[in-house]
Specification:
single chain; mainly alpha; 2 strands
Amino acid sequence: MTTSGPSQGRPVSIRQIATASFIGTVIEFYDFFLYGTAAALVFGKLFFPAASDLAGTLAAFATFAAGFVVRPLGGVVFGHFGDRVGRKSMLVTSLLLMGGSTMAIGLLPTYEAIGVGAPVLLVTVRLLQGIAVGGEWAGAVLMAVEHGPARRRGLYGSWPQAGAPAGLVLATAAFAAVAALPADQLLSWGWRVPFLLSVVLLAVGMFVRLRIEESGAFERVRQAGATARLPILEVLRRHPRNVLLAFGACLAPFLVFYLFSTFVLTYATTRLGIARSTALWVVVAAAALETVAIPLFALLSDRVGRKAVYVGGAGAVVVIAFPYFWLNTGGSPPMFAVTTIVGLSVVHAAMYGPLAAMFAEMFDVEVRYSGASLGYQVGGLLGGGFAPLILTALFAVAGGHYWAVGLYLVLSAVASIAAVLLVRSGGSGSASGRPVQSSQSRAIDA
């Protein structure tokens, strides 16, 4: 299956576009998630040693959240230029910024070397990571969705989505490898290795992304002279309702993802007594399975509708919220593995798989990068940015009991279900949840 390359007029394989979007997103999220793993396991000791173990972990998770705080800024900035200049150039820029920031973390001095300057530098570089990933997601998704056929938008949009857990696999596996080192070696130099390896992935990502063509839908916008002067203001004028509903739609999937990818590392090692290496490899297995599950749920959404698949996943969050912690109170590694794998590779995948196409279909082509970025990144901040910090704090406030965390999960899932059900569908009331577009936008998007 092919489509025409808009600039050179030569055939471009849709599969090539999907592959490029997948690989680039894998690399971006390897860099972003590597920080989360390190924050859960070593950054408290390296950059906040004056605090207690709990306070150090909370401080490390706070710097993790800092990357989410600026993701909406990255979404707005990259969205503006993505809707005016093009998707491809923004993908290349975001990859360079992310790769450079990640390598910089691997070179940072620790608190022992320079004192309070160390956490300041850590937060600064984390902010750059957040800006980069804030502009990455929508560009990768739109390149895949806009190149793909309408009847398979869910499937093609899911490849960048699958890149997120694949990046988590690489990040967690890389850290699991160095975590096998003796504690003194891990804390002195071993933790730096996964961050410095980002230079190899950066080279691969640049090679892949420089070879793909610009989105045909964007090229038609540019040729028609229909680009918005200020896309962020235009999307707020045209689609204020869908922007707000996109925030809500992101709450449950982001919270669930960071519960099962980041928070469980602390939960398993400090509360369940499970070995650090075991917890890491469980997350690797869960994320690897989710990489396969996401396209399958997205393909299902092409058949039965985005809303139906998403609501099924969010409903499952309500079902497992309390049983997950109840089943793990005994500290059994096999039970921890089974429940965590189900949570990430089934429950989260059912929500995350159809999300990309759903967001693309919620906004007109001319403002799609800005709309999708703003909705996803602000929703990600609300749902996931503070998730490890909030979950850790809820456990502490509840005296180590899980009821507060379970309630938080249920409320977030209910809010997300309500948001998705309220997304306006097209004039036909189709199950895809596609909003009404202007006649000009429909022609451009055809």
